[in-house]
Amino acid sequence: MKASVVESGEISKGASPRKGLIRGLSIVDFILRIVAATSTLGSALSMGTTRETLPFTTQFVKFRAVFKDLPTFVYFVTSNSIVCVYLVLSLALSFFHIVRNKAVKSRVLLVFLDSVMFGLLTTGASAAAAIVYIAHYGNSSANWFPFCRQYNNFCERISGSLIGSFIAVVIFIILILMSAISISKH
Amino acid sequence: MKASVVESGEISKGASPRKGLIRGLSIVDFILRIVAATSTLGSALSMGTTRETLPFTTQFVKFRAVFKDLPTFVYFVTSNSIVCVYLVLSLALSFFHIVRNKAVKSRVLLVFLDSVMFGLLTTGASAAAAIVYIAHYGNSSANWFPFCRQYNNFCERISGSLIGSFIAVVIFIILILMSAISISKH
């Protein structure tokens, strides 16, 4: 990528490698956004489609688990969906940055939006993680029973769905750092 | 970079208001860090010192609640403490930015560290919030009982301690935005 920019040549000597760096960062930014969007979509779908019905039932207890039983999981699916849509939309701006190296204000805007979405995603992921922890290990002080002992598949799926979300969280930190570097090179 | 070249030529007309803006942002940055450090310290102390013993007891059930009963609250206190220490240490860098307007690399470093600490704090705060929610409302599907019905004071304190943490979360978003603006003005 650096090479292509250098070949397009243009003017001053100092500016070209810097331009190449900025364009390179923009391209990586674009790719990482696609990865993060896929991760959050995967997380939202994985959590949203999880349900387990145990093969036995009694008169008093229902043996069926869906993510809607816990408001935190609903929030998790919502936040992942919102962030996924945002990431897809932000691809337009990211592509614009690849084409127009000089744009600075839009990069600052992107840092701001990224950090808001980063916050939203992190709240969803860690709230869900806290509940998954209780689901696995329970809490004897609060007399909360670990329902994972019964709902094995359900628990595996919801634990797995956290992974995509936390991958996206890490990507957001990288995106913010890269944006800051790009802005500093102008 | 462009600006620094102009600034090294001392006076020039365009640079002065920009310098003023950057310095202004640096000062606000310094103040906000103090506020955020105080908030996280307050949250950590408030959560860490909360305990309630009910004025009656039976043979089988212990009626005493401390934050250590729930690992999520221990994580909350830990993350808030780490972020508080970080914020106090970052004051040095923030002060350096007030004195030296031109510094860019250290600002990029600060954006990176800020976003990592933002992530850490948000995980702690939202995980604790998820547990506090269960403590207040319980969950009938999982048969988790809302212990706030007994431990009123304990619950009020832990709910209140979340506030400081979320104030710091919002401040972090502002800090990252302001750093991005400062960097873009160089």
TrEMBL record, chains A, B:
<feature type="transmembrane region" description="Helical">
    <location>
        <begin position="108"/>
        <end position="135"/>
    </location>
</feature>
<comment type="similarity">
    <text>Belongs to the Casparian strip membrane proteins (CASP) family.</text>
</comment>
<comment type="subunit">
    <text>Homodimer and heterodimers.</text>
</comment>
<keyword id="KW-0812">Transmembrane</keyword>
<keyword id="KW-1003">Cell membrane</keyword>
<feature type="transmembrane region" description="Helical">
    <location>
        <begin position="73"/>
        <end position="96"/>
    </location>
</feature>
<feature type="transmembrane region" description="Helical">
    <location>
        <begin position="162"/>
        <end position="183"/>
    </location>
</feature>
<dbReference type="Pfam" id="PF04535">
    <property type="entry name" value="CASP_dom"/>
</dbReference>
<dbReference type="InterPro" id="IPR006459">
    <property type="entry name" value="CASP/CASPL"/>
</dbReference>
<feature type="domain" description="Casparian strip membrane protein">
    <location>
        <begin position="24"/>
        <end position="170"/>
    </location>
</feature>
<feature type="transmembrane region" description="Helical">
    <location>
        <begin position="21"/>
        <end position="45"/>
    </location>
</feature>
<dbReference type="InterPro" id="IPR044173">
    <property type="entry name" value="CASPL"/>
</dbReference>
<protein>
    <recommendedName>
        <fullName>CASP-like protein</fullName>
    </recommendedName>
</protein>
<dbReference type="InterPro" id="IPR006702">
    <property type="entry name" value="CASP_dom"/>
</dbReference>
<dbReference type="GO" id="GO:0005886">
    <property type="term" value="C:plasma membrane"/>
</dbReference>
<keyword id="KW-1133">Transmembrane helix</keyword>
<keyword id="KW-0472">Membrane</keyword>
